[in-house]
Amino acid sequence: MPKGRRPPRASPRRGARVPGEIPQLLLLSNSRAADGTYLTWARGEIKAFLGAPRSSVLFIPYAAVPGTRDAFDAYTQRVRTAFDDTGYDLVSVHEAADPVQAVRAAAALVIGGGNTFHLLARLYAAGLLEVITACVRSGTPYIGWSAGSVVACPTISTTNDMPIIAPPSLRALGLVQFQINAHYTDVHPPGHQGETRAERIAEFLRLQPAATVVGLREGSLLHVAGSEVRLWGTGGRIFRAAEPAADWTQRAGVRLQTASGQLSEAGAHNCERSSKARFS
Amino acid sequence: MPKGRRPPRASPRRGARVPGEIPQLLLLSNSRAADGTYLTWARGEIKAFLGAPRSSVLFIPYAAVPGTRDAFDAYTQRVRTAFDDTGYDLVSVHEAADPVQAVRAAAALVIGGGNTFHLLARLYAAGLLEVITACVRSGTPYIGWSAGSVVACPTISTTNDMPIIAPPSLRALGLVQFQINAHYTDVHPPGHQGETRAERIAEFLRLQPAATVVGLREGSLLHVAGSEVRLWGTGGRIFRAAEPAADWTQRAGVRLQTASGQLSEAGAHNCERSSKARFS
């Protein structure tokens, strides 16, 4: 992983997809805005990311607790409404007879927030980690927010959530090689003696000194296109073990290592979009 | 686990140990106070809990990240200074040739805060869970704060910490049958879209509807004596799935189920204090 911050470089056209650049991910910090609206703040970015309407965006509602059919139905309905004007039909993996095939057939994948441990445990239980990784690495666009952004990382070790259930491992999708801390904030209640968010991230880096953590503020998202990661919105903060934390603003593109070095791992998993894959 | 709140009952004399009542635990929400002093706020309670000076209080510094000898040395020195005026010598388990024997020989156990996942992973790695449980259930007094209070619970599922390392299981010491959320706060930064602490606890209860969670505010501690749990300090909040959250103040004693029903599990582990055990 590169230790030094790369110099800023020209960003691609805002919201535009870069043909041929894979993987393509849109990783949002949050869904709800301070005014209560749901996914509205990122609607323009989502529409631009998905491009011309195609059928069958697959939603994965596994972060919803307690993981009942009712909970997944309600969550799907909320997100379906929010996606109404993108021109995509949104179907949920919990409605599919064959979840693995549903991932393979999807024009895009959408993983919502909730509890990150619950989400990852369900992905393991459904046997979906490898097929999602394979499809995204071969070109299926991926949208996540909050827990859905954290599971795109190598592990869920930088989640803010309570470990209400134990997944078999903290290892996640590994679609990018950096870690995201969603809902990142510097705010710390006066007098509160619990660790600050930055202190918690620093603890992680003491155990994983080669890692990079992106603290992603609310109202921010990352657009990953191949090896380039572009930030849009209110901003973020980059944490590495060997250097002081630094602000990351919309003006500066930053190169972070995505998962391209690991593409060969995905070879065993057939995906309907694999004709667009660059790897053999 | 009892669903209804028991009526308040007379508390035992403040800080007094109740002879014969086991287990005996002092579970603090935090170590540092808002004014920066370390363990000072609870010094009177700690001294009263430990009673007449005896040698060999055993400190367990495993919550310190990154878990190096230097980190454990520094943590031990800080706590040793804080315990100076209790009349107890504090030795650390990381200095012991045989950690299991050190637990067995201890006049009291002290587990400090830090990262709860790191603490639990180290307890598993050192093979200390069963012997600690056995000794506390047979009468060894236990003092914990923050992560050290959370590991006394059935699981660490109500920690606020980041999962920077994966212990083999979330199952912890089970010295009490309720869960503690340390550093409990109702404060939520305005506009912040991450879950409130109460929402996180509610998520846990949706998966574990029979559980009781005590949100323990900073400057508060629980004194467990047998089956009675007494709160001292600024207060707490009790969360159960089937009823609204309720404040718990110092004026009211509350009966919560401790682990007395499970004493027979500990029978296989010899402990030097076992002559005081009530179980056969």
Strand runs of chain A, count = 12
The CATH class designation of the largest domain in chain A is: Alpha Beta
Q: How would you classify the helix and strand content of chain A by structural class?
A: alpha/beta
Counting structural domains of chain A, the number is 2
For the record, the CATH architecture of the largest domain in chain A stands as 3-Layer(aba) Sandwich
What is the approximate shape of chain A? globular
- Give the integer mean of the pLDDT values of chain A: 84
- The arrangement of helices and strands of chain A along the chain is EHEHEHEHHEHEHEEEEEE
Rg of chain A is: 18 Å
Biggest beta sheet attributes of chain A = 8 strands, mixed
| Largest interface by Cβ-Cβ < 8 Å | A-B, 43 and 43 residues
Residue windows where pLDDT falls under 50 for at least 5 positions of chain A:
1-18, 259-270, 273-280
Oligomeric state of the chains present here: homodimer
CATH level-3 fold name of the largest domain in chain A? Rossmann fold
In CATH terms, the superfamily of the largest domain in chain A is: Class I glutamine amidotransferase (GATase) domain
Number of discrete helical segments of chain A: 7
Percent of sequence in beta strands of chain A: 15-25%
The percentage helix of chain A is: 10-25%
Strand order of the largest sheet of chain A: 3-2-4-5-1-8-9-12
How many angstroms separate the termini of chain A?
24 Å
